[in-house]
Model the fold of this input.
Amino acid sequence: MFIDTHCHLEDENFFTDRADVLQRAKAAGVEQIINFGSTFQSSVAVSELAKNFPQLFAGVGIHPEEIDDFNADTCNRLAELAASEKVVAVGEIGLDYHWEKDADRRLVQQKVFIAQLDLARQLNLPVCVHDRDAHADTLRILQTEARDLRGVLHCYSGSPETAREVWKLGWLIGVDGPLTFKNSAKLPEVVKAAPRDMLLIETDAPYLAPVPHRGKRNEPAFVVEVAKKLATLRNESVEEVAAYTAANARRLYGI
Ligand code: NI
Done:
């Protein structure tokens, strides 16, 4: 069986056919799915979905592109959502310098990220981190502010060197559709070097559909394509990849 450890089924792209999407996931062997909020509203939505479907779990948090949504009140309300036993993580939180070029706003992103790492510590929950074009600051914050926390750098896009530093902290990396792209850069090198217990597979649906679905809406069933590519690159069977990535997900998120 497979676990899609990162997606967004609360997204409007799934409003009309979510039941079919869940059915196709099940048919493909994807038995558990973790949806992540990016705003307060979407954090509420993923928590509600998790209550309604046994195979769904949720992470709550404010995404770096949504930092205006974050304040002390939001933080308290995220903690209230996390009281549900189907909420298994704080995320997705982190830094996004791809879309944010302003130095002051980047500092605000860092403050909001660190505040939510504190929230995860208070709630005793693992963390799902978004890092886009902000590898140095993300690693520095993990090394200085998150040594006692557990988590994953989702949709990993950094260098092999950064990955080794992340693994030293005991944090995992999440691998998605880009691994199957022709321009997957250093990612194949990273996953070939990865210890088995440091890898998760994910879709980030509706975004980043893997080949041969590239360009279409992504969905949890397609996580199998990521597993297949990992198996090829690492010279393992798809069954092995499924087994150890699912075990890693269960261990990290307690699902
Ligand atoms: Ni995401």
Q: What stands out?
A: The longest helix spans residues 103-123. The chain has one domain: 2-253.
